[in-house]
Amino acid sequence: MAYSDRVDICFSLSAITKFLSDAEYLSDNASGLCAEVDALVVGAINYVSDTLAYIKSCLDINYTDGQNAAGFRRWLEDAIWKTEKALESHEQRCNDLEKQLKAAENDHARIQWHSKPGDKASLEALEEASRAVRNAKDALSNAYAERDSCKRKLGCLKEARNSLYWIEDNIHKDYIMLTDRENEYNRLLCDLDSVYKTFNKQSEIGQSQINESLDYSKVALRYARGAVQHIGQMIGVEPSDDNETRITSIAAIYSAGDRMDSLNRMARSSNKYLGRTSAEYNELVLDNVVGNAAERIEDLLEYISAEIKANENKAENAKDLAHQLQQYYDSV
Amino acid sequence: MEKLIYIKSQWSDHVGSSLVSKANDAVYRINNAASDAMDVVRRVEDTKIYEIEFKSRTPELQELKARLERELGI
């Protein structure tokens, strides 16, 4: 695998890890949010449904109240009508009795005027007239009492009717209030149902999209981790799930890649002086990488680099260096 | 190693951006729908403030009848 591929995979691993982390975060948040909203909406729907059932029971009671009030009203109106008629009769009777009393008093006065002292017949007539006056007064007094009683009864009935008006007004106000609330709660239930359906649909689509991204990034991450592990084995670093170690691994891969690049460059450069072919050096580098000898290669590289810089125009020194390198290679 | 090459070819900035955009779109959808739902839930909460104070008026009618009976003896 080319170094550029390894670097790309490291970049990919980093990007995929970040994306997976974001996707997991989004997925958890989305799930949490969906569960929370779901519970709240379902709770609201239950509350509104329960309230509507309660309003319906209130409306049933309100209807019964209305029926009872109407029945009582019919009875009351009838009683008032009958009592008014009775009062009219009482008034008429009182008028009649007042006339009778007046007549009896006139008779008594006339008899008294014409009576003769000591006359037995006159005395009897006068007593008869007096009795008639007393009877008329008694009858009128009774009639007045009955009329007054009837008036009081009528007053009570009319007062009861006024109270009934007030109760019926409250029953009507209750009905208006209950039907208003019923309409309001029905609107709420309709809106809740609508938003709940929309929310469930959008939640399903959204979570499906997030899960798709999550699944893709999980697969990508698994491949990329495999790649890093492979590269890590090549340079002797074991990547793990631990973030710090992973970052160290990636850094080590970058570093190893840099070192290998430098080594290749230096090998090609020293090849001019050492007379070795680039193929031989590449083989040396490859063997060392495979043999998990990155550190030694780095030491050699530094040594070679220092020597080459110090003795750039001295082929003899380069030959000695090549000899040393050959010895080390043989030993590995 | 083929898998590595595969994932390297599959995972590009374009794919990543597309998935990020898709996930963001998903979150946007869910948030919008949740916001609409919560608005209605809030309306329900507001409505709770106005308690339904209802009582049957029949006891008042019965009391009125009883008073008439006491006063008129009917």
Summed up:
The complex is a heterodimer of chains A (332) and B (74). With 332 residues, chain A is mainly α.
Please explain how this structure is put together.
The complex is a heterodimer of chains A (332) and B (74). Chain A has 6 helices and no strands. Chain A is mostly helical and 332 residues long. Chain A has 2 domains: 192 residues, Orthogonal Bundle (Helix Hairpins), CATH 1.10.287.950; 89 residues, no CATH class. Helices cover 81% and strands 0% of the residues of chain B. The model of chain B has no long low-confidence stretch (mean pLDDT 76). Classes of the chains: A mainly alpha (332), B mainly alpha (74). Chains A and B meet through helix 1 and helix 2 of A and helix 1, helix 2 and helix 3 of B.
Helix content of chain B: over 70%
Percent of residues in β-strands of chain A: under 5%
| Sequence stretches where pLDDT stays below 50 over 5 or more residues of chain B | none
Number of strands of chain A: 0
Question: Kindly, what is the distance between the CA atoms of the first and last residues of chain A, rounded to a whole number of angstroms?
Answer: 23 Å
Individual helix count of chain B = 3
SS-derived structural category of chain A: mainly alpha
CATH architecture of the largest domain in chain A: Orthogonal Bundle
What are the key terms here?
heterodimer, A: 332 residues, mainly alpha, Helix Hairpins, 2 domains, 6 helices, rod-shaped, B: 74 residues, 3 helices
SSE topology:
The complex is a heterodimer of chains A (332) and B (74).
Chain A (H helix, E strand, L loop, with lengths): L2 H112 L5 H116 L7 H32 L3 H13 L3 H17 L4 H17 L1
Helix pairs in contact in A: 1-2, 1-3, 2-3, 3-4, 3-5, 5-6
Chain B lengths: L1 H9 L2 H36 L9 H15 L2
